[in-house]
Fold this protein.
Amino acid sequence: EDVINRIAAGEVIQRPANAVKEMLENCLDAGSTNVSIILQEGGLKYLQIQDNGSGIPKEDMDIVCERFTTSKLKKFEDLTNISTYGFRGEALASISHVAHITIVSKTSDSLCAFKGTYSDGKLKESLKPCAGNVGTQIIVEDLFYNVPTRRLILKNATEEYQKIVDVVTRYAIHNPNVGFLVKKQNETNPDLKTQSGSSRLDNIALLFGSSIAKEILSFEHEDKKLSFKLAGCATNANYSSKKRAFILFINHRSVESTDLRKAVESVYNAYLPKGSYPFVYISLEISPQNIDVNVHPTKSEVHFMYESEIFDCVQRQLDSCLLGSNT
Ligand code: ADP
Ligand code: MG
């Protein structure tokens, strides 16, 4: 059974950056305004994520790493919405099957924090009361210790570290109200640091450079008939850095859409020389019923109804915003 769980877990969590994304989303779901991440060996050896969110109630601490444990269903209005993100209550469980987890968490109505250690979905010994602030700290150690084939593939700690910084960068652009920090355990200076309560433009300047931020153009559009909302910003500065700058959020989750990326690039082709990479950030809110529920959890690639209408809308918004800037 453990072997099957481990294989299933390996499908959901393929590298440290997947674990970070899942845990980061949990921090945000818990209403955190500060999230800090400390890593050793690109998260393969040690990955600590600390937030100042609502914390986990003691009675939930026993079961948080069990499959399908989620405190979030009550937030959803109907059953269709539950399938929005393809899977629920599987992230911590999956991580616990391929790593050792320690959680320290305190809610505002508890007098102290509680600490638990977990493996293979289960709490290993009874919870221990300890000191701590309101919020949650999760430490993931020796990721893939029991999956030698995976460890062999992920040899490059620098690359894994960079992928984590990229994930946090995207979330920092989408959530300027939240302060993020990423650093290596043995370094004093963080590699990424944003302040809670910043503006999106502040964070674009900080993370992508002030020259990009200076030329940023924003757009917003709501389609009542197809019930989607589109917001974003873009620049037509000739941005030729290697840093990926197509940031897409659907319903506040960072996702990939090759088709939408291509649609965006085709607009840019009219404005930019080949080989230059513009900065584009798009946030799309769609009614959950319109998202493809067959999406596999590991693939952040999504599909949704009215794709061509929505892509057209994105193209029109970009086009008019870039055209406007040229005149
Ligand atoms: P899901 O997010 O789909 O509910 P997860 O496995 O990611 O499933 O998390 C399981 C549960 O653990 C969450 O529903 C939440 O109750 C709790 N949890 C996890 N991380 C945090 C956190 N940082 N702050 C508060 N609660 C958390
Ligand atoms: Mg989650």
Observations:
- Residues 118 and 232 are 40 Å apart (CA to CA).
- The chain has two domains: 2-193, 210-326.
- Residues 22, 25-26, 91 surround magnesium ion (ligand 2) (CB under 6 Å).
- The domain at 2-193 is CATH 3.30.565.10 (Heat Shock Protein 90).
